[in-house]
TrEMBL record:
<dbReference type="InterPro" id="IPR037682">
    <property type="entry name" value="TonB_C"/>
</dbReference>
<keyword id="KW-0812">Transmembrane</keyword>
<feature type="domain" description="TonB C-terminal">
    <location>
        <begin position="190"/>
        <end position="281"/>
    </location>
</feature>
<dbReference type="GO" id="GO:0015891">
    <property type="term" value="P:siderophore transport"/>
</dbReference>
<dbReference type="InterPro" id="IPR006260">
    <property type="entry name" value="TonB/TolA_C"/>
</dbReference>
<dbReference type="InterPro" id="IPR051045">
    <property type="entry name" value="TonB-dependent_transducer"/>
</dbReference>
<keyword id="KW-1133">Transmembrane helix</keyword>
<keyword id="KW-0813">Transport</keyword>
<dbReference type="GO" id="GO:0055085">
    <property type="term" value="P:transmembrane transport"/>
</dbReference>
<feature type="transmembrane region" description="Helical">
    <location>
        <begin position="39"/>
        <end position="56"/>
    </location>
</feature>
<protein>
    <submittedName>
        <fullName>Protein TonB</fullName>
    </submittedName>
</protein>
<keyword id="KW-0653">Protein transport</keyword>
<dbReference type="GO" id="GO:0098797">
    <property type="term" value="C:plasma membrane protein complex"/>
</dbReference>
<keyword id="KW-0472">Membrane</keyword>
<dbReference type="GO" id="GO:0031992">
    <property type="term" value="F:energy transducer activity"/>
</dbReference>
<keyword id="KW-0997">Cell inner membrane</keyword>
<dbReference type="GO" id="GO:0015031">
    <property type="term" value="P:protein transport"/>
</dbReference>
Length: 281
């Protein structure tokens, strides 16, 4: 007899025939299908509520992000009339005080000495006695003056302007001179560290030297002139070949302007030398 084909009610009655149906097991078995159905419906309801809440929450968030808040109203700015002060005319410079020339000494006309007879000398051409020369100045004419005055030859020719002209600097005679030692030596822009970076960034190891494993130090001498320009570049060290000397000379000639050396407060040309190290890694 197959239990699957027997109605549940009849099967329970047969199973609990002659047993205590009030104990509880009979009631549990009898309402088993109802409890399973209620549990499935409750679980499905909870899942639907969670899904609906999630969807509603997303829609609220999306609608909230699309709300554009209007900028606050800005009151129009009233243009302000610029305060333009009328230019006041500058007062004229004060007039230079008129000064009278200082008093001068009495002067005696200079007479060219000549050997002639006393009676042939005119009184105005006679040489003055020595005691008069201590209080009088020798000039082109004979004129009166003040004993405490100045020599007439010290007076300026013509009226003065009251303006002192700036002194004209003496022409330089050391532009072509090359110094080997100065008070302040020339320097590369940025110092020695910047010079080392420049050499490392711009030197290209010659292919011929790399293929033949040629390396070493090439000492290059040059002149930093009074304007900071590089000139008269030449190699001092023994030739190593492979294009090392040519590459070192090329990089030195292409350097930017240096800060020139100074001697006695003036920029001068200075002889300088740099060792360029070629090393294969």
């Amino acid at each position: 007899m197959n239990t699957a084909t027997i109605p549940v009610t009849d099967f329970l009655d047969i199973l609990f025939d002659g047993r205590n149906k009030e104990y509880g097991a009979y009631a549990l078995r009898r309402k088993y299908d109802q409890r399973v159905r209620n549990a499935m419906l409750g679980t499905a309801s909870i899942v639907l509520v969670v899904i609906a809440g999630y969807v509603i929450n997303n829609r609220l968030l999306v609608s909230g992000t699309h709300i554009r808040s209007l900028p606050p109203a800005i009151a129009p700015i009233r243009p302000i009339d610029p305060l333009i002060e009328e230019a006041k005319p500058l007062p004229p410079p004060p007039a230079l005080p008129s000064s009278s020339p200082p008093p001068v000494k009495p002067s005696i006309k200079f007479v060219n000495p000549a050997v002639v007879a006393d009676e042939a000398v005119a009184p105005e051409d006679a040489p003055p006695p020595m005691d008069e020369l201590t209080i009088k100045a020798v000039g082109v004419t004979t004129a009166d003056g003040v004993e405490d005055g100045i020599d007439p030859s010290l007076l300026p020719e013509g009226p003065g302007t009251g303006v002192i002209e700036a002194p004209v600097p003496a022409p330089r005679d050391d532009r072509e001179k090359v110094f080997t030692g100065v008070e302040i030596p020339p320097s590369f822009p940025g110092g020695l560290e910047a010079l080392a970076r420049y050499l490392g960034d711009h030197i290209r190891y010659p292919h011929l030297a790399a293929e033949n494993n040629i390396s070493g130090v090439v000492t290059v001498q040059f002149v930093v002139d009074y304007e900071g320009k590089i000139k008269d570049v030449k190699v001092l060290s023994l030739p190593r070949g492979g294009g090392l000397e040519e590459e070192a000379t090329r990089v030195i000639k292409a350097m930017p302007r240096w800060k020139p050396g100074r001697q006695n407060g003036r920029a001068v040309s200075v002889l300088y030398s740099i060792p360029v190290n070629f090393r294969l890694n």
